[in-house]
Design a protein that fits this description.
With 301 residues, chain A is mainly alpha-helical. Chain A starts with a helix and ends in a 10-residue tail after the last helix. Chain A contains 13 helices and 4 strands. Chain A has a domain of 206 residues. Chain B is 34% helix and 24% strand. Chain B is built from 9 helices and 10 strands. In chain B, the strands form 2 sheets. Chain B has a 6-stranded mixed sheet, sandwiched between helices. Classes of the chains: A mainly alpha (301), B alpha/beta (256).
Chain lengths: 301, 256
């Protein structure tokens, strides 16, 4: 029972990170019809910017401060990368969705290649405070502190995103645009500004997801291809949740995180198939699409 | 076409308007003039080109010939959003509302589009900003205040039509183009909507309405234009148009 509870907790933490990665992807698709293959790159860049900033600051500042700065840097790095991508590469291709998708694939391949060339394929280590590696004893269970961090980040971002989408004028414009973009332009509203904004917001969340995944599940190590392997699960979450739906992404992220965690432990450790959790997620995707082809939450926010 | 209005006071005017797609002529030689504060009803059999005409007037389509004047200004090649800025508002046969948004948010979005600007990013919609005030006012005006927080997708057809009119009011449209406002509306809601449209017109707005429901057109319009096969078959006051032989022939078998 204790094992089950501990697994549940880490599955939820994994789900929280999937949510950070998937919600931006989902908004971008919902509003702009772009499958953003550069989203994995935004995750990777977030982690690398965090590492670069933290490793250039004096270690005398202490790990807690350095890690806090790294978190902020990952968010800014992801947001900047995504904002520049939208303005420089996506914007000139408005009205050409296939070219937009291709340019995101090309960007991802090129920059990941540059990272491999510049930093090598070896993993780099993010400086983290000691307490992040430790565990807290809650109700007889030793729960990793890093999992709490992921959980808190996921909840905070979910609440912030919901408030933004429902309480601000840009949020309303984005929700309207996800439903019918042409109608929003017909009203005389500049949808292009909303496009840049969803990229920036999505990139910020992706950057944070990239850093947190490294810290929570990858032993504080980052590598150039990490974001792309996360991206596959983010896409699965988006499709299961329903394209364009934030709440759908949140629910689907939890389900995917839990299923992956359970199967990895219960089936993986008995069968010796280490990656069986990944297979289970793809099966889950197939089942959900068989049952609800538009995903759990259709196409509304 | 209205005999009472002076030429310079026309709110909306089409001169020699034509629209061709490939080799097909959809509309040709359309001459229409609606005086400020006038009410033009457009009728005609299916396929006559009524919706195409509204698309030209609102700017969704560009005419292949002729001109369109909005309060004296040539707008034939002006974008729909810019025409909206000049006071032209339009509704669609199929609802153009955002179903995922609340009734209030739909009205507010329209007010935001008109007010423009980029400030007040974080201001909450329910706070007393100008767009919210406008939304509250126009919803009260069309009688939807009690449904303000309801998701738009759950409204009846009649209430959706009311909300569409509220959206035009929020955009401060002075000239309303209504494409079959009674389509899909329950019979008991028709008089309510008629009264509302009549009131909006009575407050000084210019209305151009395409509608199949003859009682509605005859009851509201000051002038009726009959469209048939892409041409204006007849224009005039409701009585004379209904009595017109050509109109009777075009509508052969259809009760007028």
């Amino acid at each position: 029972m204790n094992v089950f509870l501990a697994l549940t907790f880490s599955g939820i933490a994994l789900g929280a990170i999937y949510f950070l990665a998937a919600s931006g992807l989902s908004l971008i698709y919902g509003l702009m019809d772009i499958l953003n293959f550069a989203h994995g790159l935004f995750m990777t860049l977030g982690a690398y910017v965090a590492w670069d900033v933290a490793s250039h600051l004096p270690t005398s500042w202490g790990a807690p401060l350095l890690f806090s700065i790294a978190v902020v840097a990952s968010i800014i790095g992801g947001a900047l990368a995504a904002g520049l991508t939208e303005v420089l590469l996506i914007r000139p291709l408005y009205g050409r969705p296939v070219s937009q998708i291709l340019v995101t694939i090309g960007l991802d391949l090129a920059v990941v290649g540059l990272l491999l060339g510049g930093f090598g394929s070896n993993s780099l280590s993010i400086p983290v405070p000691l307490w992040l590696i430790e565990a807290s004893r809650v109700g007889g269970l030793d729960l990793p502190n890093s999992n709490f961090v992921a959980l808190v980040a996921g909840v905070v971002i979910l609440v912030a995103l919901e408030l933004f989408l429902h309480r601000t004028r840009y949020g309303i414009t984005i929700r309207a645009g996800v439903e019918n973009r042409d109608m929003v332009s017909a009203l005389g509203i500049n949808v292009g500004r909303a496009f840049t904004l969803v990229f920036v917001i999505g990139g910020a969340m992706a950057g944070l997801a990239g850093l947190l995944y490294a810290v929570v599940f990858s032993g504080d190590l980052i590598s150039p291809t990490q974001g792309d392997s996360l991206l596959i699960f983010a896409f699965i979450v988006v499709v299961i949740g329903g394209l364009g739906s934030i709440r759908g992404s949140a629910v689907a992220a939890l389900v995917v995180g839990l299923v992956q965690d359970y199967t990895n432990f219960y089936l993986g450790s008995h069968s010796g198939m280490a990656e069986i959790g990944n297979l289970s997620v793809v099966l889950l995707l197939a089942l959900v699409l068989e049952w609800r082809p538009r995903g759990l939450f259709g196409s509304t926010l | 076409m209205s005999p009472v209005a002076e030429p310079q006071s026309h709110a909306l005017e089409a001169m020699g308007l034509g629209f061709r797609v490939g080799g097909a002529t959809i509309l040709s030689d359309i001459d229409l003039a609606v005086p400020a504060g006038g009410f033009l009803g457009i009728i005609g059999p299916n396929g006559a080109g009524k919706t195409t005409l509204l698309n030209l007037l609102s700017g969704l389509l560009a005419p292949t010939s002729g001109s369109i004047r909005l309060e004296g200004r040539d707008v034939a090649h002006v974008a729909p959003s810019a025409r909206a800025g000049l006071g032209l508002g339009r509704t669609f046969q199929t609802s153009s509302l955002f179903n995922a948004l609340s009734v209030f948010e739909n009205a507010r979005l329209s007010a935001l589009a008109r007010l423009g600007g980029s400030g007040h990013f974080w201001r909450r919609p329910r706070s007393r900003d100008e767009a919210s005030q406008v939304a509250i006012e126009v919803l009260a005006d069309v009688g939807l205040s009690s449904l303000a927080d309801r998701p738009t997708g759950l409204l009846s057809h009649g209430d959706k039509r009311k909300l569409e009119l509220a959206i035009l009011l929020a955009a401060r449209a002075r000239i309303l183009l209504l494409d079959e406002p009674m389509a899909g509306v329950n019979t008991e809601d028709v008089p309510l909507l008629m009264e509302l449209i009549g009131r909006l017109h009575g407050e000084g707005r210019t209305v151009v309405m395409v509608e199949h429901h003859m009682a509605v057109v005859v009851g509201l319009a000051e002038t009726i234009a009959v469209l048939d096969s892409g041409r204006v078959l007849a224009t005039g006051d409701p009585e004379s148009v209904i009595a017109n032989d050509d109109v009777q022939r075009a509508y052969l078998g259809q009760p007028l």
